[in-house]
Amino acid sequence: MIKKYLQPVRFLIQAFFMAGIFLSFLPFADNVGRMIFLSVVFLGVFFCGFICPFGAIQDWLGWIAQKLRIPRFKVPPYIQVYLQCSRYFFYALSTIGITFFFLSARFEFNHGVFLGAFEWITAGTIGLFLLLAIFTDRPFCNYFCPKGASLGLLSVMRLVSISREESKCVHCHLCDKACPMNIMVEQSDFVRHPNCINCMKCICACPQDCLRFKLLTIKQQKGKTK
Ligand code: SF4
Ligand code: SF4
Ligand code: SF4
Questions:
Q1: Which residue in 38, 49, 119, 137 is a FRET match for 160, CA 20 to 30 A apart?
Q2: How many angstroms separate the CA atoms of 202 and 213, rounded?
Q3: Which atom of ligand 3 lies nearest, measured to the CA of 175?
Q4: Which of 145, 173, 183, 198 to mutate to test the pocket of ligand 3 (most atoms within 8 A of CB)?
Q5: Sign of dihedral through CA atoms 182, 187, 193, 197?
Q6: In what order do the strands lie in the sheet with 190-191?
Q7: Which atom of ligand 2 lies closest to the CA of 178?
Q8: Out of 4-18, 43-57, 121-135, least confident range
Q9: Domains of the chain: residue spans and CATH
């Protein structure tokens, strides 16, 4: 059962890149991200699910909050469908050179904010998003990150993704509840959503083992998607 090891392995990889910030033993995570840039087109956004330290710390805060039984909320789907567009708005702003202080939060965090250049506005912004991450999954990734938006757009035609076997599905919605990016996995034959970060949490949550990360067939390419 490889599924059992998916999340621990993901944690270890995230921890490795997080350590890179503090110890500078790596070129910073974004450089690794650049190397896997092309893979996004075929495999989806592994950078966000496995490498980005700012994504990782949001995951970990959520996990700690769950363990401490702190009440958490999920943005309802009818709001999410509109709210998730916000990061494309910020992406557009960032590409035409208009920046806001909060756009630099991920960048500053991933580039060693703890090591030096540290402005109070950046610190406050990082703090705000980390606080929010205690109460809801990946708020910065869901609604603000221009980098996540650009990678997500590149990933929509991916050839390998999460496929759902309808015949085994009992429509329990556990995959939907597990998804930190609020994707309705249960409604689709396969996931090719620009918000998918390849965290594999939906696969791990499925009690029926009907979700698989695999090469999509031509039939699936023509099927329903989300
Ligand atoms: S969406 Fe942005 S902050 Fe979140 S994991 Fe991806 S690059 Fe990092
Ligand atoms: S968790 Fe599995 S069985 Fe439940 S709705 Fe999702 S795909 Fe279907
Ligand atoms: S669809 Fe699955 S792999 Fe993609 S973000 Fe949601 S839980 Fe993670």
A1: 137
A2: 10
A3: 7
A4: 183
A5: positive
A6: 190-191, 160-164, 211-215
A7: 1
A8: 121-135
A9: 3-153 (no CATH), 162-222 (3.30.70)
**Closest CA to ligand 3's atom 6:** 179
Pairing of strands 190-191, 160-164: antiparallel
To test the pocket of ligand 3, the residue of 181, 186, 189, 204 to mutate (highest count of ligand atoms within 8 Å of its CB) is 181
CB within 8 A of 155, min separation 6: which ones?
Answer: 40, 41, 44, 45, 192, 194, 196
- What are the DSSP calls for 146-176, one per residue? HHHHHHHHHHTT-SEEEEE-GGG-----HHH
User: What is d(CA 130, CA 124) in angstroms, rounded to the nearest whole number?
Assistant: 10
Structure-model confidence comparison of residues 213 and 114, the more confident one = 213
Q: Is the CB of 109 under 6 A from ligand 1?
A: no
Nearest protein Cα to ligand 2, atom 6: 175
Q: Which amino acid, one-letter code, is at 145?
A: C
Q: Indicate which residue's Cα is closest to atom 8 of ligand 2.
A: 169
Q: Is the confidence at residue 9, as pLDDT, over 90?
A: yes
CA 223 – CA 136 distance, rounded (Å): 31
Q: Determine the distance from the C-alpha atom of residue 30 to the mean position of all C-alpha atoms in its chain, rounded to a whole number.
A: 15
Which residue has the CA at smallest separation from atom 2 of ligand 3? 202
- Which band of pLDDT confidence, cut at 50, 70 and 90, is reported for residue 20? confident
Are 141 and 183 within 8 A, CB to CB?
Answer: no
